[in-house]
Amino acid sequence: MPALEALIERKLQQLSVPLAVRLPSGQRLGPPDARVTISFKDMTALAPLASARLDRLGDEIVRGRARIEGSMRDLMRIVAALVPGGGQLIQPKPWRRLFYHISSVVHHSRDRDARQIRAHYDVSDEFYALWLDPRRVYSCAYFADPQMTLAKAQEAKLDLICRKLDLRPGERFVDIGAGWGGLLLHAARHYDVDATGITLSQNQFDHVSQTIADEGLGDRVRVLLCDYRDLVPDKPFDKLASVGMFEHVGRAKMATYCETLRHLLRPGGLALNHGIAASGVDDAMVGGGLGAFIEKYIFPGGELIHVSQAIRSMSQAGLEMVDTENLRPHYARTLWAWSDALEAQLPEAQRVLARSMPPERAAEILQAYRLYLAGCALAFEQGWVALYQILLIHPNPAIATPDLPGAQSAYPFRRDYIYR
Questions:
Q1: Which of 93, 127, 184, 212 has the most crowded CB, counting CB atoms within 10 A?
Q2: Coiled-coil regions in this chain (predicted)?
């Protein structure tokens, strides 16, 4: 295929970051100083590189028809150079927006949400333990001090959430999407709250249940295996957190999600939503198919909306936004820490995954996660996606303070309480 080879050669010459390609014949194209080489086993696998379809190039790597030689950090510099339009966000066609809405309705039934969550989180607890911090906190860390390790930054994030919620001893606290229990247990241990967590992952439920039993916390901490729509407490909670959950809800269910938060929260109570948001309004997104790759291999059913749309839905549900903080660069650093940790132990990761699935499948999952972690780190660095903590109140007109008669909650409307 001389025409394809010539096209690839021109593509490599135009790139601002050196990249080399090794053809099935063994021939090498590209500059000699390239720090990354992509080796192809089949000439047809070259087509996505020629067309800058990064999702399809990712397919070839996951399926083993292409192989990366070089570091993921260097590879992501090349990906940034390959993204069409230099990473400019592209507005979808009107018919595409209609497709997104229909897809959202179809993809977010209770049964499908449960299957999609388990497809991701129940891959292997041992696998996640290789590259997450010891608490297995699988969300954006908070590097309050630039010198912090990942473990310290995750602890700082958990504490930041608890302080924003102004947790007090004895309060009823619920964690929607509790993961491996990092926030749930931190709040119980350090703030002496009565804590409830929910998850759809069987692996996470088992892990948290065992930790609660091991630490003798069963009298005031519990975890439930249920959908957020099916949680019916005896009475509303005082404080609520939802971390890394909002991305799985879907556009079509956003109103239901926000209304559920309000129903779960007593009037005057505080809720904190910590989640990934799109950077572009009206479903604008970066080209090259990066989102399609994440949807296919990592988070089936995941959907991102702009923070303005999120706050609008929350407001329509009767919640008042009192504070919003963008932690986007913190997530880029978090993801690079995860990526580096995984890259440092690839043979062990392959062995761990192969204990619970065929080796070929384990190899595919490992390659998908390598691309996902590094690709998401790049996306947060470039501003293609964002991460927000949104603090909300369920207004209660009966609540007032002498200096703030219209407070309608215990929120002091001064940020200094968070840092005292």
A1: 184
A2: none
